[in-house]
Amino acid sequence: MKTYCLIVQYDGTDYAGFQIQPGQPTIQGELEAALGRLGRNFIRIAGAGRTDAGVHSEGQTVSFRDDQLTVPVERLPYALNALLPKDIRVVESRLERGDFHARISARDKTYRYQVYESEFPNVFYQRYAYWMRQPLDWDAIDECSGLFVGRKDFAAFASSGSSAKTTVRTMHEVTVDKGGPLKMIRFTADGFLYNMVRNLVGTLVDVGRGNLSLDEVQAIMASGDRRLASATIAPQGLYLERVNYS
Questions:
Q1: Please, what are the domains in the chain?
Q2: How far, CA to CA in Å, does 142 sit from each of 1, 138, 156, 176?
């Protein structure tokens, strides 16, 4: 049995997320349908991250095991892209060791959130960034982002519905790109809770608006109370940028 690994890009706007959901279009559903047309077996795939509805990916990693595919591994992107919708593209394929699993084997992941600041919305960014008319204090956002680095309990930034056994995660790095009207915040961690990035960005945006101080954000984090943190920000600015493996 061979273990396959795919790197997948997608525009998540028209999908109900990565994970299979009955009666709704999903990234997993489209990939499995395309793989089913290439082989004789039903193939169940595993993704590195279960991105939500409207969330995009530049580097989602997918793994699966099969011994019936006749398409050479190096030709899989070409074969799959001929079958997939145009908003889903396989950009890399390879064989991995037998125990490789896209989610379990991941060392860390990087998510990026994009914020577009302008007097008027940009038609080309409306699916891919969160629009802000009023400029934010990005120096304050940059300073506050440092509070999230290290091994921390992120319970205050985890939406209900998570099945995680612990809310403790190690955030390796948070960087803020403040140049130009399109701002970017990147989070690299060993794992993320349900809606964690969108909840963190919502809180950072409130810091940038002057609605929260650094001391208040520290208190929110220490409380572990999701009700005290800011609202979950919209999904269209969020990307799974890359998944790293040891």
A1: 2-96 (3.30.70.580), 107-245 (3.30.70.660)
A2: 47, 6, 20, 6
